[in-house]
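[job 4471] stage=fold_predict status=RUNNING
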Amino acid sequence: MKIRLIAPFAIALATAAHAHDGHDHAASEAAGKVGAEYMVMEISAEEAAKAPFLRGLALLHNFEYDRAAEAFREAQAADPDFVMAYWGEAMTYNHPLWEQQDREKALEVLARLDGTREGRLAKTRTQREAMWLDAVETLYGKGTKEERDFLYLAKMRALLASDPADIDARAFTGLAILGTAHGGRQIPLYMEAAGLLEPGFMTHEMHPGILHYLIHSYDDPVHAPLGARMAERYALVAPDAGHAQHMVSHIFHALGDWEASERANTLADAVVDRQRAVAGRPPSDCGHYNEWLVYSKLQQGKDASDIISRCRLQAIAAIERGSDQKLGFSAASSYGNIALWNGVVTGNWPEELPITGDGFLLTRFDMATAKLLSNRSDIATASEALGEMRAIAEDIEAALAAEQPLNTYIMPWVTRQLSQGEAVVALASGDTSRGLSLLEAAGAAEANLPEVFGPPPMVMPSYEMLGLHLLEQGRANDAAEAFRKALELAPGRKISVDGLAKAYAAMN
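[job 4471] inference complete, writing structure tokens
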């Protein structure tokens, strides 16, 4: 088969065109360009159900879950007994890489097809449909979430083995492998997924699922160069899927290519804002894509204060509306992230937010962290802030058990932030030796946690903070080593890059 190659600079040209040619992009959005033209799954359905199903399948691969569910329901309306349309909608409630699953909602979808597993199986029109249905029934069947993830993977391996040319079976099997890495990235599993997905890239180089899941497999600093091939293509495949536009920045971020990351997230935010406008909603300056956009701008030394200021207004509005969930992600939690990053880089720390009651725990933890870091030379205020952080951390742990029992990501990093806080207080008290020792231990502990994608969970990684203090002590060689360790974990961070340059200059 002839493989079409895309030049490395193609995505730069394409994204620039999208950024400056609103008419062309608006036309593509009207056509719903989300990668549906690359969907080749063989299905047995009424003709009117095929197009919405394939669009839903592409959106599912793009993690555009709400839009995918709508498309699958459209297919159900056109063909009420079309099993795969219910399979697809049920799949939108499983978010393996986000440690999220709504089993009850998924089972409600399957129950609309038929009230029993046997009745649903009887409606399948091909053996292939029966295998897909069996897999999703297993995903939401008996056992714990972790147990079901492994049982589902076994079903997907069997589905792929029965037809290795089925590109969607290959894509979803790769994703299922990634979904068994409970508790964070496990490199062997991620490389296993990459090994299974790579043959699909050779035969279907523009398939959104193959591209998406390979990017996830490779979005760490060591493997990111392998993901550059996918990043060249993915944004072109689905220009009207905000998540696809954002996903390529996972590779750019791991490579420390901040200009490309800024461009990708600008486009992702623009896609979402256009969709919000269609729905009669105002644009947003908070949210995941804006967070990565601000981070990439700060790493280039650019001013992100306009985005941060507008997000602050949206955060205050979210706080005034209140929240039933103590851990609910909102404009407030988004503002906490970007305001802290800005404070670390510029020294312009966030003002307090009008939070009352016991909600918005993550934002409150961020604000207490800002209080700690902005008062690193004031022992009384730093100690008070650390006490606040500890109290909020206890509430976060309790809320996780109640609201997000599957989440294994938040608490380890909250604990690491507390450990760094102990070092900050020790340094503020004048106990430099103990403070530096605590920072060294904190950095090592952070390095031993599973590799993360995206901005570091620590507002300022401990090795980076250690390097800054060592520079102040005149220990240039030790500072350079600390900055090198920081850059291994977070390539291209401006503070670490600048600090390393200062350490080298002092050594010479």
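[job 4471] summary: Residues 46 and 79 are 6 Å apart (CA to CA).
[job 4471] exit 0
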